Amino acid sequence: MAVLVSTGLCVGTYFTLGYYHVPAVCGMLLALYTVASLRPRAVSVRCAAGALLVLLWGTRLAEPGIGPLSVGFVTVSTIVCWVAGDGSRRLRDLTRRLRLEQEEKARRAVIEERIQIARELHDVIAHHVSVISVQTGLAGYVFSSDPPTARRALDTIGDSAHEALAEMRRMLVVLREEDSAPTEGTPPGSGGLGGLGELVKRVGEAGVPVDVRVTGTAYDLPPGIDLCAYRVVQEALTNVIKHAPAAHTTVRVHYGQDEVHVRVKDDGTGRAAPARPRAAGATSGVTGQGLIGMRERATIYHGTVTAEPAPEGGFEVSLRVPVPRAGSHGA
């Protein structure tokens, strides 16, 4: 506004002194464009009217015979510069609104995923409490008659109690930042790597061949980690169906000494080129909300998720989660 006003005063004085040159008009129009691109429309329209009056004042000095042409030139130029500046402002406002909508969508996705995870952890905790209840009754029943069985029952109670407390702490972590009522229509979670065969079968029926490979010495995972790994595989295979329905996919599950590593990779066959760019915050062919869900689950168990194009082609989703083994009952 300061630049436009000062330019208008200088140009108006220049015209009043009997000078008229096109560069003066260009400077005035450039200042008008800047105001129209940065200020509200109600303000820029008044500025455009004032700028047009100043320029029309200068056209009185135009050479005889081209006066009407000069009037038309400054009028059309003023309108064009104002429209261009106002369009730039509206485009910037639209971009800002879209960014805010994307951030809100991502925030809602995080909330919904946390609600889903909390429900699943609730089921896991309920399972441990049920085990504790049953084993407590067994220990009390055989306490005198069968001490070894009672001892095993007490050991099971201790392990289940530690796991239940760990899962409860994780559930509190999930809910610590969001105070939101559960959304309707979100079914309680179920599954685990034990249900991987059924999942692969369903994906195969959808037309995506999947090869499952398990390496390392398999052992029982804590229920929460087991469910986390299953959900990541499920989301990754779902995205293969969406973006590369003709691709051959490999699911590898490796049981390490202190971690479980899950990798889902497709060979890229049938993957359309537009499926690669980022979507709503994603860095790959995985949808933004799907990647948010994967990361939320992995973070709860101190794990990591990567989703990126594979060097040899195709796309790869990788999950690594540390697994507390016997003698370690940390959260």
Provide an overview of this structure.
The structure is a single chain. The chain has 331 residues and is an alpha+beta fold. It has helices at residues 2-16, 22-38, 41-58, 67-142, 147-175, 196-205, 223-243, 288-300; strands at 210-216, 249-255, 259-266, 304-309, 315-322. A five-stranded mixed β-sheet has the order 1-2-3-5-4. Mean pLDDT is 77; it is low at 178-190, 273-285 and 327-331.
Primary descriptors:
about 325 residues, alpha+beta, five-stranded mixed sheet, disordered C terminus
Describe the secondary structure blueprint for this structure.
Blueprint: H1 2-16, H2 22-38, H3 41-58, H4 67-142, H5 147-175, H6 196-205, E1 210-216, H7 223-243, E2 249-255, E3 259-266, H8 288-300, E4 304-309, E5 315-322
Parallel strand pairs: 1-2
Antiparallel strand pairs: 2-3, 3-5, 4-5
Helix tally equals 8
Measured as a percent range, the helix fraction is: 55-70%
User: What's the oligomerization state?
Assistant: single chain
Low-confidence runs (pLDDT<50, min 5 residues)? 178-190, 273-285, 327-331
3D shape = elongated
State the order of secondary-structure elements, H for helix, E for strand.
HHHHHHEHEEHEE
TL;DR?
It contains 8 helices and 5 strands; from the N terminus they run ααααααβαββαββ. The chain is an alpha+beta fold. A hairpin with a 5-residue loop joins strand 4 and strand 5.
